[in-house]
Specification:
This protein is mostly helical. It contains 15 helices and no strands. It has a single domain, classed as Endonuclease III, domain 1.
């Protein structure tokens, strides 16, 4: 997309969002640390939802140090109204831990006295900080012209055709600060963030898709598609006990049958050997000799 077309689409988006969402301007420069911490909660969430979560977490814990030493699970349970409470808790704890380890306090106001570039680099080095949190703190506390974008905003801008798929993956919106002047930067940033939060919460919402189509008629081509569910194959039924028993019996039968012929053959061999060693006498001749002897022994009358 050319720079002029991108700028025209961004300005059209701004005009449409002004009719859809409300923006409450911030009063004066915000404390740098508080602005950075609020951005940790605001990322990918509606502004009113983030404000409620930020108030809840401050009321639930004694001070910033107690939040620092708490677990991410404890923080996310307090901010359970956020769409990504675990991510917010991780960012919040990480920033507080990093600030305390470097300064042994919870105060970043001294960075306002330095060059804005130096202050931005310092914020970028903090553990838990993200491009969104740094840009938000730069815009609201350091007075710089930096429009914050998070995952939801990048997704919405891609569907609108403002950025390409590769630019969305890199988290970049080239030329946005040039297309939107600094005087309208906070307003545009807040409005497009609300659109991004709705996209992050439910990109398949019919009302959200109507908004996107009202801005870009070809947005339908880039709508995210639902993942198709693969049918789950039914597992094969296990073999019954009766079948298992039969298979065991069948397995034993050949072995038994093989043993029986062997024993029978052994018996025949033994019998044949005995018969050869002790042959039987024939009854016929023996009987004749006995009869002859009997006749010769009789006396004459």
């Amino acid at each position: 997309m050319t720079t002029s077309n991108r700028a025209a689409l961004l300005n059209k988006t701004h005009k449409h969002l002004k009719r859809t969402y409300k923006h409450t301007p911030l009063k004066g420069d915000q404390p740098l640390l508080e602005s950075l911490l609020f951005a940790c909660v605001l990322e990918n969430a509606r502004h009113d939802t983030a404000q409620q979560a930020f108030t809840k977490v401050q009321a639930a814990f004694f001070d910033w140090n107690e939040i620092r030493v708490s677990t991410v699970k404890e923080l996310s349970e307090v901010m359970d109204n956020l769409p990504d409470a675990t991510g917010a808790g991780t960012r919040l704890k990480g920033v507080l831990q990093s600030v305390f380890e470097s300064d042994y306090s919870f105060d970043l106001e001294h960075l306002k006295k330095q060059n804005i570039g130096v202050a931005v680099k310092r914020l970028q080095k903090l553990s838990g900080s993200t491009p969104f949190t740094v840009a938000y703190a730069t815009q609201t506390a350091l007075g710089g012209h930096s429009i914050p974008v998070d995952k939801g905003t990048l997704g919405a801008l891609y569907v609108l055709g403002v950025i390409s798929e590769s630019e969305a993956a890199e988290g970049q919106v080239p030329g946005m600060e040039r297309a939107i002047p600094k005087s309208k930067g906070q307003e545009f940033g807040a409005l497009v963030h609300e659109l991004g939060a709705d996209f992050f919460s439910n990109p398949f919402s019919p009302s959200l898709r109507e908004q996107l189509l009202a801005i870009a008629s070809d947005a339908r081509e880039r709508f995210p598609k639902r993942a198709s569910k693969k049918p789950v194959e039914a597992p094969a039924p296990p073999p019954t006990k009766a079948v298992a028993v039969d298979s065991k019996k069948k397995g034993k039968e050949p072995a038994a049958a093989a043993k029986k012929p062997a024993k029978t053959a052994e018996k025949h061999v033994v019998r044949n050997a005995k018969a050869a060693a002790h042959p039987k006498k024939k009854a016929g001749p023996a009987g004749k000799k006995t009869a002859a002897k009997t006749l010769t022994k009789r006396k004459p009358r």
